[in-house]
Amino acid sequence: MKGLYCRAGVNDAEPKFVIQETSLPETLGCHDVRVQVKACGLSPLDLKLLSDVGIQRDLIPVGREVAGIVLQVGDKVSFFQPDDEVVGILPLDSPCSGLCDNIDINEHLLVQKPEKLSSVSVAGALRDGLCAYTALHTHARMAAGHTLLVMDGASSFGLMCIQLACYHGVKVLTTSHTPQTHTFLEQLRPSVGVQDPLVAKVIPVYKDPSDLLSVVLEETGGLGVDIVVDSGVRLSEEESSEDMKLLPHKHDIISVLGVGGHWVTSHKNLQLDPPDCRLLFLKSASVTFSNHEVWTASSSQQGRYLHILKDIVEKMSAGVLRPQPEEAVPLYEATVAMETVQRQQKKKAVVQL
């Protein structure tokens, strides 16, 4: 059978994605489940993270968010049986590519897939759902009555944050990066019969990024927000690329935080200067780094991780979380699709097998 793999570039060269023949071991591990993959989500590959945790291979498996049907179970598997529909995320050190016809995965990394939830939909949105759940529940301790600022709310991750927060009674502010995404965010509405919009305010930073602080303070009566979830930040004013201009400066994010606020950042190399730390101290605010990979990198909170996955798929099935649909591509287009995802970083793709 075939799988998609990455051959890391040398000296900052772009990584190459290739289809390779692979096979599974004849003997199934006692706690492993053999799954026939129906759909696999493609997300950007973090080669630096893999290197940091000691995973160095000539060919790195690609595609980790999978949905499929159980074919065979190990001797000590207690959660599943053949013909069960399951969904899960392969661990960082998995030797399997999620685009293989069949894969082996530990039973403690899978949950049952609700029957009416499509494999393509859940495979394309599971990672973003996990990121949003981790940011808002695990890190920010979100609660009803809080005010949340989601940067770039039209992204797949931002949309998950907005929907999850509104379900829990949180007031949501968000930013838009283009006129098209601004229109989309303005039209967001909750379930039928409820007239209030999902988003209390959409801030068009593509017009003037400096408006962020004044608009947030106006919307919150000068108090600031309880939670900020970013999609990247600028560390200095000198960063002048078009994409970077739309990102908030780190000082702006700290400034919009209220007393006791939580900033959940996806910036891996965040640097805070003494004045930044002083402002955080005065507000008794905190900064948390969002690294959703820790759930599969450590087994210390495996039960909690499974609870999160189960809650995400149940909310998707119930329509609480409604991800933007991704058009599924066939396996022979997976290489080109992954190259696009890796290059654009925030883009998603789903391969249907």
What does this structure look like?
The structure is a single chain. The longest helix is centred in the middle third of the chain and has 21 residues, at 119-139. α2 (119-139) packs across α3 (156-167), α2 (119-139) packs across α10 and α5 (211-219) runs parallel beside α7 (250-256). Residues 190-195 have low confidence and may be disordered. The chain has 353 residues and is α/β, with parallel strands linked by helices. It has helices at 47-52, 119-139, 156-167, 179-186, 211-219, 242-245, 250-256, 274-283, 294-297, 302-318, 334-344; strands spanning 2-7, 16-21, 32-42, 60-61, 65-73, 85-89, 102-106, 110-112, 147-150, 171-176, 201-204, 225-229, 257-265, 286-289, 328-329, 349-352. 31% of the residues lie in helices and 24% in strands. The protein is globular and about 65 Å long. It is built from 11 helices and 16 strands. The N and C termini lie close together (12 Å). Strands 3, 5, 6, 7, 8, 15 and 16 form a 7-stranded mixed beta sheet that branches. A 6-stranded parallel beta sheet has the order 11-10-9-12-13-14, sandwiched between helices.
- The stretches of 5 or more residues where confidence is low (pLDDT under 50) are 190-195
Indicate the radius of gyration in whole angstroms. 21 Å
Approximate helicity band: 25-40%
Distinct helical segment count: 11
From the N-terminal CA to the C-terminal CA, the straight-line distance is: 12 Å
Global outline: globular
Helix and strand succession? EEEHEEEEEHEHEHEHEHHEHEHHEHE
Strand content: 15-25%
